[in-house]
Structures are given as structure tokens and as C-alpha cells.
Design a protein that fits this description.
The structure holds two protein chains of two kinds. By secondary structure, chain A is an alpha/beta fold. Chain A has 28 helices and 35 strands. In chain A, strand 23, helix 23 (594-597) and strand 24 (601-604) form a beta-alpha-beta unit. In chain A, helix 16 (451-466) crosses helix 17. The longest helix of chain A is centred in the middle third of the chain and has 16 residues, at 451-466. Chain A is globular. The longest helix of chain B has 18 residues, at 351-368. Chain B is globular and about 75 Å long. Classes of the chains: A alpha/beta, B alpha/beta. The interface between A and B is large, with 44 and 42 residues.
Chain lengths: 912, 432
Amino acid sequence: MPTIKVDGQDLEVKAGVNLLEALLSAGIDLPYFCWHPAMGSVGACRQCAVVQYANDEDTRGRIVMGCMTPVTEGAMFSVQTENAVMFRDSVIENLMLNHPHDCPVCEEGGECHLQDMTVMVGHSSRRYEGKKTTFNNQYLGPFIGHEMNRCITCYRCVRYYQDYSGGHDLSAFASRDRVFFGRSDDGVLENEFAGNLVEVCPTGVFTDKTLSKHYTRKWDLQSAPTVCTGCALGCNTYTSERYGQIRRVHNRYHHEVNGYFLCDRGRFGAGYVSSNRRIPQSGIRNAGGLYDPVNLEAAISKITEMISSSAKIVGIGSPRASLEANHALRDLVGSENYCNGMTDTDRELHGIILDALSSDLVTPTLADIEDYDAILVLGEDVTNHAPRLALSIRQATRNRSAEMADATQIALWHDAAVRELAQHDRSSLIVATPVEDRLDEVASQVLRLKPSDISQLGFDIAESLSNSSLSDSNSSETSAETASIVTALTNAKRPLIVSGTSLQNANIMKAAVNVALALKTNNPETGLFLCASECNSVGVAILDNQGSLTGLLASEPDMVVLLENDLAPRLGQGFESQVSKIANLVVIDHLDNASTSASHIVLPAATFAEAEGTYVNNEGRAQRSMAVYKPKGDIQASYHLMDAIQLGAKGVINDGASTELRSSTEIRHDLVNQHPVLRGIIDAAPEADFRIEGSKSSRMTHRASGRTAMLANISVHEPKQPVDSESAMAFTMEGVQQQTPASLRAYTWSPGWNSNQSIHKFQSEIGGSDTGGDTGVILIAPNESLTPYTIGQIDRGTLVAKLHIFGSDELSANSEELSQLIPRPYIRLSSLNANALGVSNGDGVSCQTQGGELQMAVIVDDNLPVDCMVYPRIPATAQLNGIESIELSKITEWVSDLNPLSPKLITTDRTS
Amino acid sequence: MTETPLTRNIAPDKGPTDLAAYEANGGYDAVRKSVGQSTPDDVLEIIKDSNLRGRGGAGFPTGMKWSFVPKPDPVQSPGHRYLVANADEMEPGTFKDRLLMEFDPHQLIEGMVLSAYTLSADVGYIFIRDEYHVAIKRLRDAIKEAENKNLLGDRILGSDFNFHLYVHISAGRYICGEETALLNSLEGKRATPRAKPPFPQVSGLWGRPTIVNNVETLCNIPHIIANGPDWFKSLGLGSDGGTKLFGASGRVKNPGCWELPMGTTIREILEERAGGMKDGYGLKGFLPGGASTDFLVAEHLDLPMEYESIMKAGSRMGTGTMIILDDRTCPVGMIANLEKFFARESCGFCTPCREGLPWVQQILDGIEAGEGSLRDIEILERQSQFIGAIGNTHCAHAPGAMEPLVSGLKYFRDDFISHIENKQCQYAVGGA
């Protein structure tokens, strides 16, 4: 650790970092704009200037940029010397020449890094008297607003968008003081991670439209640390609310999981909470097939009646519901009558994930993945299934540039230099999937294969690696493709195999495990990352992976309690026939869907934003998501509803049932007592009785002064704040905010740092762990050795359900803005198949299923394996799920739809 | 008659020198003498010994610049190595490289072949501004001639040395003359300078070892190889060796470009070559080496045009082509005009340059229009401090842009004050 001298004080700093990082890590404030902890330095803004002295005699020194200066033993700097202070003042003065100073109407106001840095620098008087530069703004899609006049030209947006996340449709245009950041034309930003622009931009150029439409200042938001339920990665988020409405989702830094970035499903997908399909109260279906709204008590007593008259009651849980909710359901119906709500196929697939997690194979964190130097993606649609993972894989392909930089003695934080050195030289990434993928462009080898060929490829690779025949096929000759993959994986320092459930193919995942096992014999650094299906698939699989959904439905139950689960996409065309047989169906869910429509009684369940819950991601990391606000009316946490049913069945419902309900903490303890393997979930976040200096952690900011005025138009007497009996957090501004563990911190803020950049005040070092303690606990200690799988029955199904980041997740698909980006039903065919049908691009085809007729636009794709057909897994095509092949016929009356993947949106926000 | 190796094939009444004429006058002898005959290290030693300094403006010793290129290592570091001729001659008032390329294209090609041999570069580019369409055509024709005679291409003159040379036409920005912005531009990217280190010698074009040299620098190479370093050194009158193309523009009787020994006095260039000021005009000051150098004035006329002497006087020799300011042209207007150019040509990457130069320009325009105040002078001085030092900005563009302003405020302060006090410009020619 080198020691440097800063303003006369010795400072021990981490070797290899730049001065800005070193100072921020040491708690010394130095203003900056263009540097970003995940993206390194380029030296554009010149804001982090300090004076460096050559030696003790040097009294003048010279201006250097903190972000571009390495820390070397004995180096001498001054942050405070007048020269440096004046220079930084001039930077702000010049940056602000053309800034519109529209802070009062700017979405960024109050959490604006530019505001913070301006105040930090102390620049307050304006001398410029000229005209300001102005720009036209663009329509960038439903998520992101554009206000170029606010731009301070730090280049963070393009560096993030192009260099970090691989986008192509946002660029810097023009030059001098006319640099424009935007698209060549108005249009939806194409990249799945575009939403991060909102946080990457240090001021209000790129703003969150979903917040803007019902804008609230940051200090008036009530927030909570939540876990994204959009996929199985468990990215950490802050969800914020006002007046009982979700206003936005922001990234919550976790050094091992999502780091600084989210995908757009996670950021913009929570709108379903206030969707018009939200179920606000209980309903009982009447003879006319409509639902009579009833209060909760009435609904529960009706359920109690049902229970008493039912011999067999089945509970269907849900991989998108919390562990607490699933456990409460299992308690209600008994383990023999419970299933975790996954299809039998999904259950088998998650069994493989559990095998892998408990084996001695390494499951890396998303942060670790960036350090693997050869990655094989075996049949997993990473970009659409576990999007944030795709961002990590993209960074991993830069390990080659890290090696080159090392050999050339260029510091890794010197971002532009490293990229110029490495150019397109990347580490190995082999993508074997049926359909084109955004990762293809950074891949060293791309294989378009049908699912059965992908699993075969995997088994061949494993076989070739271990030279022992595990596959029942007799492929003794190794193909050139296999050989080159084997070479890439064997030559790697750290090889990683990525697979998962997206193709719903057990052989592919087994093959992936086998490849990892074979590699591991010679390389203990080998990693395996298996993507699970939903936010709590791994959790419910650990809880109980025994009960079979089809088995239980076939057991002819008198009554089914369905928890936060729509069976329509799971059962596909068999949905109607199987569900119509159920005499008494009780559905507990958030949104109106096919299952609630088929139910006899529906109960309104709290979403992740309204109820605390524990979710287990695909690393086996249990994380607690905290409630953001108290749900309105009869809406309650599913686990409370379940307990109420149980208590109601015992006849307690009318006798102050609510006091008898178990708290989430009690449910968790009961759960852990029954399932010791889940013991870790207790520690995923501090319990409800946790206090810091006698106080709970507050969800509102200390500055939420508007709280007292919120309901003043109704009554000037401020009502008592809701009490949170479930957690160590409080629905008020009173309490502790900054010294809390990350799992209880509602937002990041530090004096002088009102924007998300304040995160460094909570990091052990830049990019390090949280000083208050990280969120979550890894549940499964890997120890057992795993024997390779034998290949199962090869399924020759050629109909592939393609996942879409926007549309394939049941809940987020109901968010207003996100729903605009769901593709229209399409079928992707090779030209061989298209010719046979007499169709070409943009034509329409239809197919008949038990669920009725489905019309789809044709996409001809000759990169597709020749006999594959691909449809999007979106709500509109649910009836195709689980079908192995379909009959198509051309629609003659069809308005050509040449690009069903792109939204038909207005291309301008401007009215004129 | 002093020796003029660079322009020996050039005369006002002569067209371009073709390969036959070039070879007839000893052309490509240096290539024949070196390629496959001497080792690259031997050639490098000759260049180092000659103490040739870069003719693009900075005056960095060429041999030393070349010695930072890592030795070829096809195993650890496979791939191309590049040599780039910077022919993006965009410095206002500078037109020396154009002369060399239009009238003796083979001299540049020979210089590049020899340099590439020394550096083990296998690919070369001549990065040339679009306006030089005559030079572009003549260079392309000459490259074809050289290729046909195996002076370029694979296995040059039967040796193991391969060198392919291409002419790349710039899209036309002043900043493309900055060597790393030039490289980005060559790669098809925005012409934004790169942060140094790493230097292009280590990580240049497409991340590979690269040398970028000015056209005139490269044109000196064949003569140094042919005649030896001592001969080269002896050409200069003072400490710097060789000859230099000097030029003068402005209200002089005979504006032009001449090859003269290094160390020729400014007075000789101005009075003997350029013929002195036009009748009725007096000398107010001059920019010794292009628009981005500090003003000098009459008291400096007897200085020799050499890197060190001009530096000591507070300016830079730059490209050696002077812009003369006469006493009937407003210095404030001239500086405002220059700053307008520099503000417009900023790449827009770093704050001081992107935001600072337009502000300076606006203030100068205001003063020139009689709308200035004394506070404006304070702002200009603060801005000059802010923008004007190398290291404060991402590249040398903005510090260069501040040179005429800072020196203008020093030598012509009275003019600024009188504009402000009289609320108007009193010169016949405003300039802005």
C-alpha cells in the first residue's frame, strides 16, 4: 500500500487506483463528473483537479487531474491549495455557462450531482453575459426523457451506453460547444440497460419518464430497500412511493450482485403495482360470472365454508411469491398437498440448479463473473432471461484487454487507453443458442443450434474434456466446433459455463453441469452459473420441490388455493381444461389474470412494494425485500391472508383475527424450524426488533418536511404515521438513516452528496462492500461432489419459446410503459419453412390450439437452425407454451407487419 | 548559395517531380543504401545523431521519439506497426508541407520508407487534409510509381522488408492535426485527442505501436541517411541542425515559403525573403510559427529562428511560418478572429477548451465591437490562466489557442484599453 501526502497529511492508499478513487475512499471530498466507479477515467470534465508537487522543494506544483493520476509511493498533492481551488471553481463556472439553471422544474433537482458539485466548489456568482447554447430534444421511448440543454458534456452517457453496455443508438454528435448526445433520429433507445442513463447522467439530461409523469422530489419520497422480482438474479433496488403510488425504482448498490446498474425490466417494471388490472379488494364470483366485491372478512368466511366442505385441499405456491407466503400456504394445506407452483419441467430444472448449488462447483456472483476469461453460454438467453448477467458477461469479455493493459503498463482505470489498446480483442465468449442474441457481437464464437443440438454439443464438450463417454450417442469424433470450444475453455485461467432454464430443457442444463465438472478436474477456478426462472424459484425449490403441479391438479382436489401464480402461461393450452375442473378455486394475487378470472374467490395480495418478503436468487442468496408503504384497504401480504384463512377455518376470524396473525418474523422462524436448510434467511436482514440507538430505520428522508402537509387539504390534524410491526423500519422520517445495514437503508444520502454518487460514503472502498453490512446471505454451503449426469431422453421439439425482457415476465408486462415495448406475436422461421408455407417477412400466419386461434407475424431468419420455429413467450402467446410443434397456415387478410419486435409508438413527445 | 536539400527538386516554374526525375537526382539512393543493407538500429542511430527535431511545431527530437517504439516482438505482440505522416496542415498561416507534397511527393515517400524500415513498421498512412487535392493526386500517382518499382509493397528491393503506404483523406478538422486525434480519426472515430500516456509509440493506431511525424520531418530523413548526421548538423547556423521551410504571410511585399538554414534570423526572413512590409504599413507584431504561437514584436527581429531562442523570447517556433500583424490592422480584431477559429475547432471533449474558448471569443468580439468593460480584461486573464497551461486541458489545443491572447494582452494592452474606453475600434481593418 503506497503512502501519499495530501495537504501535508500522510495517507495510505490502495495500490493501483487513481488519486480520485484514493481520496474518495479516504473520505476526502473532491468534486468530479466524468469519472464513474464502474467505468473508470477519461479526463474530460477536468473537475477533479488537484496540484501535484514534484518534491518537498517544489512550492508551485502543477495542476493534475485526480482521476488521471496514479498513486505512487511518496507522491505529494494538495487539494486545498489556492491554485487547485481556483481551477475547480473555473471548471464549474465554465460548465455552467450554458446550463439553463432550470433546477426548480428539473427532475434531477435535489439529487443532482451537478448541484452538489457546484455547491462543493463554492462557485456562486455568474459573470457570463452571453446567450446560452440550446438544443432540440428527442423522443427516446417510453422510459427516458431527454433535455439536452442541461448537458454539461461529461461524456458519461455515451461511455456507459456504447462502451459499457454495448448500445449502438446513442452517440455524441457534432463538436466544440455544440456536442449533442442522442440518437441519429427520434426513437426508442434499443439497449436493455438504457435506464441506467438516468443514474449515470450527473444532471437532468436523461430522466426517468415513469417518475416524471407524477413527479416527486427525492426528499418527499418514501423508500425502502427492495429486491427486484423481475428475474432470478435478485438485483437490489430502492423502490420509492408517495401517496400510495410507486414513483420510481432506482439501483441499490450491492458489490456482489448488481453493482451500479439495473436492467430496464427491473427499473421500469414495477408499474404493475398501480396497474388498472390491480385487484383492490376481495371478490366472490356470482352466478353471472362476475365478481361481487366483498370485504375481507366475508371472503375469508366464505373460504372457511369451502374448506369445511372440502375433503382434499391443494395449495399451489409460486416461484414469484416470497418464502414467507409459500410457507404460510404450505402450513395451511399441509406439505403433501402443496406444490411450489412450478411446472414439472421447471421443477426438474431447478432440481439441477439445487444439485449444482450444493455441489463443490463454484457459483460466481455477478461481480465475480466479470473476472472469468472464457465463458460458454449453453442454450441460455441471458439478455432476456437474466439481463443483468448479460452486462456482467459483456464486461468479462474485456479480461483480454485487462491482460494487454497489464503487459503495456496501462492502469485499468485509464478507460479510454485500455479500450484503444485492446480495440476488438476480447476474451473468449462462446454463445450456443437457437436465436440471435445481443451478446453475439462480443462473442468469439456463435453457434445457432436447436435445443437438442445444444445439449448434444454440451455433452460432446464434456466428453471431450473428460474423455469418458457419458452420452449415449456414439460420437467418437470431435467436431471442429467442439474442439475449438474445448481449447478455449481449457486454455482459460478461469472458465465459466452459463446455462439455465430459458429453453426449458433439462439435457442442456445437465450438459452444462457436466462441462463444468469436467473442467473442474483440471481447473478448480471453473465456475458454473445456472439461471433460474423466477425471482424466488430457487427459494421455493429449496423449500419444497416435491409436489407436482400436474400431479396435484390430477388428484381431483375439491378446492385449490392458488398463491400469486397465473397457471395460464404454465399450463399453456391445457389451462382451461385443467382449471375448469376445480370446484373451488381461491386465488390470491395482485393482478387480474386468466387464473383470477377462473377463480371462485379472489383475495387481494400485497406486492413486493407493500409486504416484506424473502427471496432466494440463483446463487442461493437469500435477500429480504422490505415493504415500501402500507397497502391500502383489504390488500394484505399473502402470508397474512393465508394465516387469516387458517385462523378463519378454526373460527377465529370474527374475533380479532388480526392480532392472532403471525408476523413475518414469526412465520420466518416457523419456516426455519421446519426447514433448517433455510436457516440463513433469518440473517438476510436484521429482525423487527433491531434498533440503532433505540431507533428504527426510517423510510422517509429527514427532509421529508412535506409529510405534515400531505393530507392537510383533508384535515390539518396530521394523522398518526402507520406503524410497521413487521420490520425494523418505520414509515416516518424519524429514525436512523445512515448508520443502518444496507438491508435497512431506504436511500443513500450524505451531507453534501444528495445524488446517487453518495454511495461511496457507504463503501469500504470504491467498489467495495457496504460498511453497514451487505444485504443477504448465501444459503447453501457448497460441499458435495457431484457425479456427471447421463443424457436424458433427447427431445426433438423444434418449437422454441423465445424470452423477451419486455413481456416474458408476468408482472412487469403489466406496467404501463414497459407494456408498450412487448413484441407483437410473431413466428420466426427459416426460409425453408417459410417457402413451404408460401410466406415471407411481414406476412401473417395463424395456428389453432386448444386455446383458440393465434395470429402471428412472420420473421424469416436464415440464421435460425433450419427446422426450428420460434415464438415469443409473452402473455398473448401463452397458449403455445409447452407445445412441441404447431401447424401454421397463411392468413390472406393481413396487414403487413414487418417488424413485430419494435413497438408502434409515436416518435415524438412534442405537440407542435 | 546555401544548401536546400528539401527543395532541391522544387522550383516555381517546375511541375511535380516524377520518379525518373527524382531518381536521376539521387532519389531513393538512401533506400537502396539502407534497406536490407543496414540494420534498423543503425539507421536509428544516424537519426539520433543528426539531432533532427520534429518540424510539426513541438520540435521534439525525432530519434528520441522513435526510440520509444518497442522492438518488434511477433510472438508476444503480433500485428501491424504503423507509420503515419501528418499531412493535415491546418495551422492558420502555414503552407510548407503542401509545397513538399505537391512538388516532390517521392521525397516524402522515400522518407517514409526509410522511417518505416527503421521502426519495423509495415503499414503507412499519409493523413492529408481534403483541401490538398493536388497533393493527394500527386502522392497517389507517386505511390503507384514506387510500387511498380518495388520501392513500396512486399519484399522491398528484394529484402525481407514490407511496407504498404496509403493516402487517407481527412474529413477536415483542425484537431485532426493533433497526433492522437489524428489516430482516432484514422480509426473512424470522433477526432478526440487521447490522454497520454500511453503514447502512440506503445499504443497508437488500433492499439499498435505507431509513429506520427510531420511531413517536413519525414522529408529530411533521406538526406540525413544519404549525407550523414554531421552534414545535417552543419546545415544549421546555430544549435539546431538542418534546414527549415520558413514562411511569411500578411502585409509583406513578397509572402511565401523558403528553405533556409535553421537559425536564420527573423529579420532576414522578413526583410530579405519577404521583402519587408508593404508600403504604407508598419510592423506591429508577428506570430512566429502559426496561429497558436505567442506574438513577438519588433524587438525580437534579430532572434534566430531556432526552437530554444524563440522559446526564451516567450513564444514558440511552431511551424516556422510567420503571420505578420501590420500597424493598420486591429490586434484585438485579429485575436478575436483567431479565437473564433480555435473555439470552432475545439473537439468538445474537455471543459476548459469546449466552454472556455467560446466565452473568450465572445468577450473579444464584445471588446472589438466597443461593448467591452475593464472587468472583461480580468475575465480574459482568469480564463487564460484556466485554459492556458498544458495539463489543465486534455490536449494542447486550448493552451495553444491562448498563446496569441496572452501575448496580445501583454504587447497590445493599450489597444484593448482604448477599445474599452472609446467604446469602439479605431483601426482601419477590424479583423473580427
